[in-house]
Every structure is written in structure tokens, then in C-alpha cells.
Design brief:
The complex is a heterodimer.
Chain A (H helix, E strand, L loop, with lengths): L2 E4 L3 E5 L4 E3 L1 E4 L4 E8 L6 E6 L5 E3 L5 E5 L4 E6 L8 E9 L7 E2 L3 E6 L1
Parallel strand pairs in A: 2-12
Antiparallel strand pairs in A: 1-4, 3-9, 5-6, 5-10, 7-8, 8-9, 10-11, 10-12
Chain B lengths: L4 E3 L2 E4 L5 E6 L6 E7 L6 E7 L2 E5 L7 E4 L6 E5 L8 E8 L9 E2 L3 E5 L1
Parallel strand pairs in B: 2-11
Antiparallel strand pairs in B: 1-3, 3-8, 4-5, 4-9, 5-6, 7-8, 9-10, 9-11
Classes of the chains: A mainly beta, B mainly beta.
Chain lengths: 114, 115
């Protein structure tokens, strides 16, 4: 069975700082990788996803993530955060041999101070 | 708004009661998923449907839980004889169902509190 771990539970940043959130997964086969975001009071929405091709994936709102297969990692980055990036971020994986179900990490709460 | 909708948004019940939640997916989305999220955790997969067929159930889905999608459109999740450990946010998601890379679109969730 696959599993996902997110290294930081809470991150506090000032505006304009750079953000990097770690995500590692455990699964021996081929996977699709996702980052979802949940803004305060809103539902989960997709930031970006990777399934093949260029391992550097660009998503909405200036976010990007890099898939490093050798490290089983899919870290999320943003060069300069804004107050509106305050949210909870979830990394998720689905294993291609195991259907469509998503396995999520525990989430990282990001607070951006104005 | 043509996103995934869930009803009710909040449900408070006493231990031992039965509850039923409804999910309306995005129109023409063939796949529908149920997840459960407890405080401080990420969502956990419960079950999913391809049209009206329930294709997979997690071992988290005990015998007290049942899900249906009778006409391949909306779905219901019923919990019988609720326990305090059932308190959680129940999330529904839908996707086109054409590929495993399809985006799953999530609804706002139903927050269940069992007293």
C-alpha cells in the first residue's frame, strides 16, 4: 500500500519569503502525484499534478513542484508568498496499479504574516 | 455553481443514531469518491463508484457504513449506529473517470459530530 508523508505540520512565513513544502511517498510502482490546497473556509482544490513528462510542474498561483523519482519526493515551492497563500496544503498520490483512490499526506498548515 | 455539492453541511447526532449524507457530483462526471478527514489529518479514502458500480471499499468502511449511487448520479453515504469515533468531515469528490490522472474535484464536506 502507498503512503505519503509531509515533513512539516506548520510553517510560518512573512510575505515575500520563499516557500518549500516537503512530500515523500512510499510505493514501488508508478504513481501520479498531486498537491491540493484548502484555503480557510473553502474546499480542497487542485494546485498542480504530475503524471509524466517534465518533472518540474507548474500550477496555479505561481506554485511549482518537482518530482524526483530517486528520492520518492514531490516538493512544492513558491518563490515569493503572499498573505493570501495562508492555507493548508496536502500532497497526494495515486498508484497506477491501484485505481483512482488518492492517498493523502497529513497536510501542512502555512501561515503567511502580512 | 456547478461544483460538487454535499448535504447537509453539518450534522450533530447522538451515539447510536443513523445518519445519511448526500453528494451531488459535477454533471457528467462518471466517478464519485467518498473520503473521511479527521482533525489534523489528511483525507482518507473510503470508497468510490464508476457510474452506479461500487468498485472499491476501504477497510475503514466497516459494516455500519454503506454507500450507494443508484442511478449513477448522486450518491448517499449512510452510517448506522453511529459511534463517537465516526465524528469527522466526510468529503465527496468526482472526476470524469476517463483516466487515473483525472482531477478529483472536492465538495465542501459534511461535518459529523457524534455526541
Amino acid at each position: 500500500a502507498q503512503s505519503v508523508s509531509q515533513h512539516n505540520h506548520h510553517v510560518i512565513l512573512s510575505e515575500a519569503a520563499s516557500l518549500e513544502l516537503g512530500c515523500n511517498y512510499s510505493y514501488g510502482g508508478t504513481v501520479n502525484l498531486f498537491w491540493y490546497v484548502q484555503y480557510p473556509g473553502q474546499h480542497l482544490q487542485l494546485l498542480l499534478k504530475y503524471f509524466s513528462g517534465d518533472p518540474l510542474v507548474k500550477g496555479i498561483k505561481g506554485f511549482e513542484a518537482e518530482f524526483i523519482k530517486s528520492k520518492f519526493s514531490f516538493n512544492l515551492r513558491k518563490p515569493s508568498v503572499q498573505w493570501s497563500d495562508t492555507a493548508e496544503y496536502f500532497c497526494a498520490v495515486n498508484a497506477r496499479a491501484a485505481g483512482n483512490k488518492l492517498t493523502f499526506g497529513g497536510g501542512t498548515r502555512v501561515l503567511v504574516k502580512p | 455553481d456547478t461544483g460538487v455539492s454535499q448535504d447537509p453541511r453539518h450534522k450533530i447526532t447522538k451515539r447510536g443514531q443513523n445518519v445519511t449524507f448526500r453528494c451531488d457530483p459535477i454533471s457528467e462526471h462518471n466517478r464519485l469518491y467518498w473520503y473521511r478527514q479527521t482533525l489534523g489529518q489528511g483525507p482518507e479514502f473510503l470508497t468510490y463508484f464508476q457510474n452506479e458500480a461500487q468498485l472499491e471499499k476501504s477497510r475503514l468502511l466497516s459494516d455500519r457504513f454503506s454507500a450507494e449511487r443508484p442511478k449513477g448520479s448522486f450518491s448517499t453515504l449512510e452510517i448506522q449506529r453511529t459511534e463517537q469515533g465516526d465524528s469527522a468531515m466526510y468529503l465527496c469528490a468526482s472526476s470524469r473517470g476517463e483516466s487515473e490522472t483525472d482531477t478529483q474535484y472536492f465538495g465542501p464536506g459534511t461535518r459529523l459530530t457524534v455526541l
